[in-house]
Structures are given as structure tokens and as C-alpha cells.
């Protein structure tokens, strides 16, 4: 009966099962899941850094929440033996729109049939929430000024590629160590749910593996959303 389950997706299936069991076992810790990053907390972080010109700060605030991205799609693994240069997002794939949006292409991988990658469109989704475009524009200006010939989109102030530890140290400093890299992705999905976007749309935007996975991170009903064009995603390292 389980022959159709891909081994790499087992943790996702188990996460969905745990979510369904939690109402029946409220006093038991079935899964040590980190909480989603609340939109209100992200807004306050953005307000406190809205005039920042610090390159690394702008890099961290740029994108993951609104694109429902996995941390591994933004940074490199701490373990260099897992690093694959072909999975580095290219600066040349980036387009900035005057309508306060921007997009870039996540590199293709072996599970993708058309080898086209995923086009990620980022823009403001909530009238009362932060606008990611100004942060990204300042980051891109800094990047092009200091590293005009570098091929990678995501770079630290010293020219190195950001890794998991770098990102998490910043996140813990500004938001608290109760959050993890996955808190951006689940936080974005939760915010969409709270603003009326359907589970099906959230699942499509974030390319969640199955309905159980998306439901376990969302939890309400929903509306409206531009963010992303299919197919399968690069697996995360963190």
C-alpha cells in the first residue's frame, strides 16, 4: 500500500498525520515543530529596519516570507559537502518591476521534467503588512555596487554566499530563538490563510507536497495571490 510514497517525502506525510492527531492528544508533544513567524512580528522587524543600509540586514529581510520559500532555497548548506553550485540562484534571472514587485528563477533540478526552474514573483500581499520591494531594491543596489560581476543573487557584505547558520543567527537576534528557517515559509502560509486565501491556492503558491502538509501549516480559509509559477521544488538543506 505504501509503494507510491517517495522516501524523501516521508517526513512530510508524518507531519500531516501528527497535525490530525494533535486535537486528540493535546497534552502530548508529538512533534517538535517550530512556530510560524507572525506577520505582526515581521512588520515590526521591518519598521525597525526600514531605513537600514546594512547589506546583510537587507539580505535577510528580502524575500522568504512572501515567497513561501524554504530556507534551503535562499542559502547554502553549512556542510560544504552538500553544496551544489548549480542550485545557486543567478543574479541575471532577476527582474524588478516598477509596480513594486520583483522576480527571480530558482534553478532547475533533476526531478523537474522541463528543466526550466521555478519563477518566484514577490510583491506586497497585505495592505497592513510590510512591503518587501524597498528592502530588495536597496539590497540589489548594494549588491550591484559592491559585486557588479558576481553571478549569485544572494551575497553577504563580504562577498560570500550566505549559509544556514548566518541566516538563523540573524533571525534569532531579531525575532527570538523559538523560530527556525521554516518559520518564514509557514509564517507566510499562515498569513495568507488569515487573509482569506484558499488552502488550494496556498498549496499551489508554496508547492507543498500534499494537502496534509499545507493544512498542517495553515488552518483557515483564504483569497487572492500572486507569487509563483509551478513545477517541483529544489529540496531544502536546513
Low-pLDDT segments = 209-238
Strands, count: 3
The rounded Rg comes to: 18 Å
> What does the main sheet amount to?
3 strands, antiparallel
Strand order in space, largest sheet: 1-2-3
Global shape = globular
Instruction: Please tally the helical runs, counting DSSP H or I stretches of 4 or more residues.
Output: 9
Arithmetic mean pLDDT: 76
First and last CA, distance? 30 Å
Question: Could you state the order of secondary-structure elements as H and E?
Answer: HHHHEEEHHHHH
What portion of residues belong to β-strands?
5-15%
The helicity comes to: 25-40%
Word description of this protein:
It is built from nine helices and three strands; from the N terminus they run ααααβββααααα. It is mainly alpha-helical and 238 residues long. It has a three-stranded antiparallel sheet, with helices on one face. A hairpin with a 3-residue loop joins strand 1 and strand 2. Helix 1 crosses helix 9. The relative contact order is 0.21. The C terminus is likely disordered.
Sum up the structure in keywords.
238 residues, mainly alpha, three-stranded antiparallel sheet, 6% strand, disordered C terminus
Summarize the structure.
The protein has 238 residues and is mostly helical. A 3-stranded antiparallel β-sheet has the order 1-2-3, covered by helices on one side.
Furnish the topology, listing elements before pairings:
Blueprint lengths: L9 H12 L17 H10 L6 H7 L2 H4 L27 E3 L3 E6 L11 E6 L8 H15 L17 H12 L6 H13 L4 H8 L4 H7 L21
Antiparallel strand pairs: 1-2, 2-3
Amino acid at each position: 500500500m505504501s509503494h507510491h510514497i517517495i522516501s524523501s517525502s516521508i517526513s512530510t506525510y508524518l507531519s500531516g498525520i501528527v497535525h490530525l492527531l494533535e486535537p486528540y492528544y493535546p497534552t502530548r508533544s508529538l512533534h517538535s515543530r517550530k512556530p510560524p513567524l507572525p506577520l505582526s512580528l515581521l512588520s515590526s522587524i521591518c519598521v525597525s529596519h526600514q531605513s537600514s543600509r546594512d547589506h546583510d540586514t537587507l539580505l535577510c529581510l528580502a524575500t522568504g516570507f512572501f515567497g513561501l520559500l524554504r530556507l534551503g532555497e535562499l542559502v547554502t548548506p553549512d556542510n560544504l559537502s552538500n553544496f551544489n553550485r548549480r542550485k545557486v540562484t543567478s543574479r541575471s534571472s532577476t527582474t524588478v518591476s516598477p509596480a513594486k514587485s520583483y522576480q527571480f528563477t530558482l534553478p532547475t533540478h533533476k526531478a523537474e521534467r522541463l528543466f526550466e526552474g521555478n519563477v518566484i514573483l514577490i510583491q506586497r500581499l497585505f495592505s497592513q503588512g510590510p512591503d518587501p520591494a524597498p528592502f530588495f531594491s536597496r539590497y540589489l543596489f548594494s549588491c550591484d555596487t559592491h559585486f557588479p560581476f558576481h553571478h549569485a543573487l544572494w551575497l553577504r557584505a563580504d562577498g560570500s554566499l550566505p549559509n544556514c547558520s548566518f541566516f538563523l543567527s540573524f533571525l534569532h537576534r531579531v525575532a527570538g530563538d523559538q523560530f527556525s528557517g521554516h518559520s518564514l515559509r509557514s509564517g507566510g502560509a499562515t498569513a495568507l490563510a488569515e487573509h482569506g486565501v484558499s488552502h488550494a491556492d496556498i498549496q499551489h503558491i508554496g508547492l507543498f507536497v500534499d494537502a496534509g502538509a499545507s493544512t498542517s501549516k495553515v488552518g483557515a480559509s483564504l483569497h487572492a495571490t500572486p507569487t509563483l509559477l509551478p513545477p517541483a521544488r529544489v529540496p531544502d538543506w536546513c
